């Protein structure tokens, strides 16, 4: 089998429980919830088409192309070895993502990556069964896309998505070890959904001590083009009200790395 790869690069994991960890990212092309094309925003079987911030179309990214399993795993290891100067005590780590990586990731590729020494992670929307052998499973539920995977290492909920089937309490009976909420990237949302907020208007709406705490966290957040202040406030409030959940920030964007 050959694998269609959008891009393959060395970076730091920017989100969730593994945030800050050196990693090779393997981004596959394709998704089962939407096409990834701008003209198709709002279409598809998952609500993520409205806000997805990832380019997974084609094979034109860094190290993109079509690969066999052995070739792809060796290219990934070469990226790791080319960047890491002293790796004792740190197992090579690769994150399989997309799009939806479960459309392509199979046992043959997992075995090839293990043969190169990698710990293999996946970031999936959870709507498809996974092959055996994956070392770290992160599920990110999407509106209108029923979960097939009901357990794993990490559940990372982009929040709020505005639908009943993505309310946090819907997932709290599932078998995950880590629970994260993350605000949507502002650049992927339409202006009509994100009216600008200012310190003055936010302050006027902060009536309770809990609101003031959330407000402070929001105002301390770096002001970048991708900051979604309303979403961040909602995530902070959720973590305060339901403490099993923890806040995930896209730290790679704050650090200016891919």
- CATH uppermost class: Alpha Beta
Q: What is the H level of CATH, i.e. the homologous superfamily?
A: Aldolase class I
- In the CATH hierarchy, the architecture is Alpha-Beta Barrel
Q: What is the CATH third-level topology name?
A: TIM Barrel
By DSSP, the count of extended strands is 9
Overall pLDDT score? 87
Report the sheet-strand fraction. 15-25%
Low-pLDDT stretches are 189-208, 211-226
Enumerate how many helices there are, as a single number. 6
Q: What is the first-to-last residue Cα distance?
A: 28 Å
**Helical amount:** 10-25%
What's the story with the biggest beta sheet?
9 strands, mixed
Q: Over the alpha carbons, how many angstroms does the gyration radius reach? A: 19 Å
Count of the separate structural domains: 1
What does the overall shape look like?
A: globular
Q: Short description, anyone?
A:
The protein is α/β, with parallel strands linked by helices. It has helices at 69-83, 107-115, 199-205, 209-220, 229-241, 251-255, and strands at 2-12, 22-28, 65-68, 93-97, 119-124, 136-139, 151-158, 175-182, 246-247.
């Amino acid at each position: 089998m050959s694998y269609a790869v959008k891009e393959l690069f060395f970076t730091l994991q920017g989100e969730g429980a593994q945030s800050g960890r050196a990693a090779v990212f393997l981004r596959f092309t394709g998704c089962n919830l939407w096409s990834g094309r701008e003209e198709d925003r709002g279409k598809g079987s998952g609500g993520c088409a409205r806000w997805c911030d990832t380019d997974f179309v084609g094979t034109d990214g860094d190290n993109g192309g079509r690969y066999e399993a052995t070739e792809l795993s060796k290219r990934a290891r070469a990226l790791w070895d080319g960047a890491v100067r002293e790796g004792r005590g740190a197992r090579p780590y690769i994150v399989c993502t997309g799009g939806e990586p479960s459309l392509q990731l199979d046992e043959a590729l997992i075995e090839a990556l293990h043969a190169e020494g990698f710990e293999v992670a996946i970031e999936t929307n959870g709507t498809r069964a996974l092959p055996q052998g994956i070392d770290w499973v992160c599920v990110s539920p999407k509106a209108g896309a029923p979960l097939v995977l009901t357990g794993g290492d990490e559940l990372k909920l982009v929040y709020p998505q505005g639908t009943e089937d993505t309310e946090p309490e819907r997932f709290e009976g599932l078998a995950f070890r880590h629970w994260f909420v993350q605000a949507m990237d502002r650049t992927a949302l339409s202006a009509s959904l994100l009216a600008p907020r200012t310190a003055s208007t936010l302050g006027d709406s902060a009536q309770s001590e809990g609101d003031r705490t959330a407000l402070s966290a929001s105002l301390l957040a770096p002001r970048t083009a991708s900051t979604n202040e309303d979403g961040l406030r909602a995530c902070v409030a959720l973590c305060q009200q339901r403490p099993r959940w923890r806040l995930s920030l896209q730290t790679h964007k704050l650090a200016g790395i891919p």
